Amino acid sequence: MGLNSSAGKDKRALIERFLKEIPVFKSLPDNYLSRFARDFIVLQAKKGETVFYQSDSSADLYIVLEGAVRASLLNQEGHELVLAAFDKGDFFGEMSLLDGKPRSATMIAAEDSILGMLKRERFLSAVKDDPMIAIDLLSALVQRLRMADDMIESLAFLDVSQRLMKLLLQIAKAEGEKDTSGFFRIKKLTHKELAARTGASREAISKVIKVLAFRNIVREEGDCLLIFPDAESGM
After folding, report:
1. Three-state SS across 152-180?
2. pLDDT tens per residue, range 160-211
3. Predicted TM-score (pTM) above 0.70
4. In sequence order, what are the beta bridge partners of 62?
5. What are the Cα distances from residue 150, in Å, to 2, 144, 145, 170?
6. From the candidate CATH numbers 3.30.565.10, 2.70.70.10, 2.60.120.10, 1.10.260.40, the one assigned to the domain spanning 4-156
7. Which of 158, 163, 173, 220 lies at 20 to 30 Å from 188 by C-alpha?
8. pLDDT in tens, 104-151
9. CA 45 – CA 109 distance, rounded (Å)
10. CATH fold of 159-234, please?
């Protein structure tokens, strides 16, 4: 895997704080949570580094402590389809954690990141102590499956411009801030990144961005993208 491990009281305290905020572990009492946090291994991943590959046999749970990670499918030509993005406080790896089967996607550090990793055996031990952990995890898994269904529907029935606008509006509503002109301001993504997250070619994304800019639906400004809040109605 190539990831660097590190330890320290500050990182353990960081893990404990995140565990308290993650719904899956919300039922754990504080004293148990503190012991549980000590079982996590802290890893550092550089931007572009692979956390694990699709079909890997690992089955551990990860928490993003700092940075961001993306779940992707890669073909033999090196083309990438981004399935989901995980930011600070998010967890991933739960499918293999539950069934012990190989990974369903490749996880790549989208930026320099610090991760907390919990071995499957330790998680199963915690579930025996508190079965509500498994129920909360299954609830989170169902929510992600619904998001996957939504993505499949978009790929099947929406054209590139519709897929792109749907993605940009999702990001804007989740992370963006409105400026004085009423536009959502989000961190700028490259055309390659947008292509990977919409299942389109970079050339197609570039053409769509030009059309959207001409129609004043999307504007590029420095390191930001400005998204018109009623963009869907203007498509």
Report:
1. HHHHHHCCHHHHHHHHHHHHHHHHCEECC
2. 888 888 889 888 888 888 887 788 899 888 898 898 888 888 888 888 888 8
3. no
4. 92, 117
5. 33, 10, 9, 12
6. 2.60.120.10
7. 158
8. 999 999 999 999 999 999 888 877 877 777 777 777 777 777 777 776
9. 6
10. Arc Repressor Mutant, subunit A (1.10.10)
